[in-house]
Prior knowledge:
By secondary structure, the chain is α/β, with parallel strands linked by helices. The chain has a single domain, classed as Alpha-Beta Barrel (TIM Barrel). The chain is 35% helix and 17% strand. The protein has helices spanning 21-31, 64-77, 97-107, 134-144, 147-163, 194-207, 230-238, 253-260, and strands at residues 4-8, 35-41, 83-91, 113-117, 120-123, 126-129, 173-174, 210-214, 243-246. A 4-stranded parallel sheet has the order 1-2-3-4. A 3-stranded parallel sheet has the order 7-8-9. Helix 1 runs parallel beside helix 8 (253-260) and helix 5 runs parallel beside helix 6. The two termini are 14 Å apart. Belongs to the PHP hydrolase family. HisK subfamily. It comes from Alkalicoccobacillus gibsonii. It is an enzyme of class 3 (hydrolase). Residues 5-214 form the PHP domain.
Amino acid sequence: MLKYDGHIHTPFCPHGTKDELNRYCEQAIKEGLSGISFTEHAPLPDNFDDPAPTQDSAMPKSQLYQYIEEVQAIRTQYKDQLTVGIGLEVDFIEGYEAEVSTLLNEVGPMLTDSILSVHFLKVHDQYMCMDFSPELFQEIAEALGSVDAVHQLYYQTVQKSIQADLGPYKPKRIGHITLANKFHKKVRPTRLFTNEINKLLLEIKEHGYALDYNLAGLRKPLCKESYPPYDIAVQASGLGIPLIFGSDSHQAKEVSIAWSEYNGIPLSTP
Length: 270
């Protein structure tokens, strides 16, 4: 099996580390990987206010082309040692489909790999960042009436992301579909949402998309499971959905940490 990490962040991430691109590449080579994709958080729409309390969810638009140029240079530098993908982690934001499409049409021809993720939920006409902290997650639960309601809204929003028309450069990989479980050891739902997840998997298969098999949740003390968990990943694999390994690294050493937790499930490359 070729080891490929399709979800790596960079020093352009406002909430990450300043580890340079080459450090991630060297770590990947040391780990025996065949390739990696840099998938930095795409700039949010100009008319969208970042709802994270620290307002550091994504790189600013002013840095987007510098990011692409630097990854292109690293791609050339390591071409004989490592396949390097140029990508973005694109936020699906309900109601901002046109703005996201415009961005993708602008930079899509320069990209080789991207992920479509949900981090923001529209809660009573207000956007909230659902994975920022357990305290903020609880605030969303209070606004919606229950923890279960947050999970329900999250899966509904992921479904909308799968169905959304975001143009020809829409990412073909759906990000961490069980991110609602990030704080589940502290903020507990009362059920597993099996039907909702089954429906998402069938829609992903129907659209011919791949799935981000993201091991970052194993490093989160209130989660301790991958996104999606192993049994759901096995189910997705059985449906023929390609699983792309994602360390979701925000520092170079996490590339190796994530592979140390890999459990042998069949993987694909972008």
